[in-house]
Amino acid sequence: MEIKEALALIFKGVAPVLSENGFEPVYPAGVRKSEPPIEEQEGGKLRLSFQGERGAVRIEYREQRIFLMCTDINAAEATDEDYKQASLSLFDPAGIDDKDIRYISNEFTDTIRQKFGKKARSAAKSKLPTPVSKSAAKSGALAYDPNTLASRFTTMYPELREEYRANVEKYGEFLAEAFFAQYGTPAAMQTIRQNDKQRMKKLFNLLNDIYEDGTNETQSLIAVTILGAMHTDAQLVENAKEYMSETLAQPVLAVIKYLNSPAGKRAEKKLENPPPYKPKKAKKEKGMLRQMLGL
């Protein structure tokens, strides 16, 4: 995707929430109002600017990164030093696709609402963690974390977006096991039970992709917490087999076999009754999938 095309899509995604909060785009000289207001700068930098009574906002692309910059100072008076970074994502045009654009737009939109929205001023919301971009995961620079799984999952199931946010606000961080056990897994099971071809493709394209380049914890969430729930219904497993990649199918079928064995009953109870939240320990423990499969 061309970088200007990507920026135009991001502009389209964030412009409504900026408008709602009193910000208008700043059009560079020579750019018509029917076009995205992209300002070209030295060194390949590109910028989208917005101004309003409560400050100014910039979206800047430079060195394969995209920044959301905000200031409470009027745009006419603000200097570059007055703009503070509010959000950052890796942004390699060669690897960007429509999904990445949606995630970045959602992240920027959430951040803008948090900083400038009326609800945010009266009762500040926790900022959602930034998801890992597809380009970063495929390059090996980063791995998909549980937050990225939830961010993409709630794009497919937008009705769960507020539950995702509520989870972050309740615990001060994203407690993935609680969210997926209570909300994500039932939604996925309903999709698999209905077995609609388009919805199944969408769900498993997401799960196959995230599992392939996910952290151990993320892989456990997919194979155990979400798809492991199929072990109670053989028809669900048959419905899913056609859509799971070979990489995903192998651990999922092993988990299901384990959960259907006598030794798997304790693990099943743990899934149904996740332990109370405890602060993170300094030492990283093995994910549930690795423990169950003896890895």
Characterize the biggest β-sheet. 6 strands, antiparallel
Distance between the termini: 39 Å
Question: Which percent range describes the beta-strand content?
Answer: 5-15%
Q: What Rg is obtained from the alpha carbons, in whole angstroms? A: 21 Å
Name the assembly state: single chain
Order of helices and strands: HEEEEEEHHHHHHHHHHHH
How much helical structure, as a percent, in the residues?
Answer: 40-55%
Structural class: alpha+beta
Shape: elongated
- Which spans have pLDDT < 50 for at least 5 consecutive residues? 119-124, 281-286
Please report the total strand number as a whole number: 6
Number of helices: 13
Mean pLDDT: 85
What keywords describe this structure?
295 residues; alpha+beta; six-stranded antiparallel β-sheet; 6 strands
Q: In words, what does this structure look like?
A:
By secondary structure, this protein is of the alpha+beta class. It contains 13 helices and six strands. The protein has helices at residues 3-20, 98-116, 118-122, 134-139, 146-156, 161-171, 176-194, 197-212, 216-226, 234-241, 246-259, 265-272, 288-293; strands at residues 23-26, 38-40, 46-52, 55-62, 65-71, 84-90. Strands 1, 2, 3, 4, 5 and 6 form a six-stranded antiparallel sheet that branches. Helix 5 runs antiparallel to helix 8. The radius of gyration is 21 Å and the shape is elongated.
SSE layout:
Layout: H1 3-20, E1 23-26, E2 38-40, E3 46-52, E4 55-62, E5 65-71, E6 84-90, H2 98-116, H3 118-122, H4 134-139, H5 146-156, H6 161-171, H7 176-194, H8 197-212, H9 216-226, H10 234-241, H11 246-259, H12 265-272, H13 288-293
Antiparallel strand pairs: 1-3, 2-3, 3-4, 4-5, 5-6
